[in-house]
Amino acid sequence: MTLEEVQQWTNSRPNLAHALGIEITAVADDHLEGRMPVDGRTHQPMGLLHGGASVALAETLGSVAAALRVDRSKQACVGLEINANHIKGVREGWVRGRATPVHIGRSTQVWEIRITHEETGALVCLSRITMAVIDLPGANAKTA
């Protein structure tokens, strides 16, 4: 899929990524990139980027990247496990995430997501997500 097609697909209905201002910015064979604003939507009470918002960015990027690796008419990718190490606080601007594959298998995928501050390049969060690849109901049914 092209970047424009991915953006249209991910914005086709209201979702958490849309509410947080997450944008997909690059699609390539070996990675997927996106960014998210650091503002009132993504702050925790002390005015810093909320760790949960970083995890939402990581899961969004990992999920979209994983879905691009399967035939979406027959399979879906769903989050199985995610972890995140929050390295540095951010108060404003944008953070940028880059999802790269660690393992692409038949039934699971593992993606690493590095989130950096867009202006300084400082590492903000390092996350890893494991995606389960599941068959869609009826997708593999034999026709008579």
UniProtKB/TrEMBL annotation:
Keyword terms, alphabetized: Hydrolase
Entries under Pfam families matching the protein: 4HBT (PF03061)
Annotated ranges, domain Thioesterase: 46-121
InterPro entries according to UniProt: HotDog_dom_sf, PAAI_dom, Thioestr_dom
Hydrolase is among the record's keywords: yes
Family (UniProt): Belongs to the thioesterase PaaI family.
Name of this protein: Hotdog fold thioesterase
Source organism of the structure: Hymenobacter monticola
Lineage of origin: Bacteria, Pseudomonadati, Bacteroidota, Cytophagia, Cytophagales
